[in-house]
Amino acid sequence: MKSIYPNFSVKASTTTITYRFASTISLTLLCFSSALLVINKTSAQTPDNTNLEQTAVTSISNAVSTLIEVLRSENVEARVNAARALGGMGTQAKIAEPALKIALYDKEPRVRYSAAIAIANLGGDTKDAFPELLKALEDESKWIRQDAAYALSNIALNLQGEVRDLSAEELNQAVTNFENTLKIMEDSKLEIPPQAMKSINDSLDSLKREKQRQ
Length: 214
Hints:
This protein is mainly alpha-helical.
């Protein structure tokens, strides 16, 4: 029986690996499975935590590099899932930020949205990602809307934590951005997670108080 899932290839060094996947989870597990095997083998052979940690770092770096390559795939689903997998890794995937910024200009909206969400989740520069996150709030996919909402709440929380370090211009822009964000969320006829809205609203209140204090 022929698989309904597409294949795509990634060239790593001199070896071309062909992947078949069904979801972000399977793609992430695929990238980490060999890494986990190496870590477990090292752990069994030596109690040296330094070697174990170094092996883990190298394995994670290799997984991130593989996902960056997948972002260049001709297959749309591959690019979407690679961006989502990188976003799920958080700050461990920070090195992928330049590749994700390129993906913000992908011809496919879902790739752009997934890249923007990933940039927010790995703590990157969200200036270029922010407009795509707002568009993602109105995507037909419930999961993209939900991920975008939580990514925006992450940005808001990070700004709240850095509020004392923001210039007056940056603070004004942040307040404007999140006022617009809440308006889109409140006006949306689509399901938006209320927890994300509350988090953004709380952060916005904090930003406004700092604005008044300046």
